[in-house]
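Q: Structure tokens for this one, please.
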Amino acid sequence: MRDFKSVPTMKLKAFRRQGALTGLLVILFSLTAFGHVFPDHSDPRVGSEVKDSPSMVKIWFDGALEPVFSTLQVLDPSGKEVSHEDSRVEEKDSTLLEVSVPSLPPGKYQVIWKALARDGHLSEGKYHFTVK
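A: Here is the predicted structure, written as tokens:
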């Protein structure tokens, strides 16, 4: 025969287990969401029109980058890469990803970036700027 006094206790234990599991899942999801790095600002700026060709394209991120796996490319209006193959994370500022470019003629250029956070999370994206 069932002891009816234990029913509320059994429900309370089940509720505590569900709450603990839910809490654990929220914490695990939060840890993975906060690991990515994202651009803070760039030079040339996103969507900007610049009068003169830049010699470097730079993106500053909101966290430290892993230099070996972070890359930056600049493509011309036809989709051909025009950046030199010297994409790098700045030694003195681990949040700065940069690449040098030759003198760019007028046109719309696409910047493609991949940034690996020091904890292993990869972010990527692209933006445009125009040389007048």
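A few notes: The CA atoms of residues 109 and 119 lie 31 Å apart. The first helix runs from residue 6 to 33.
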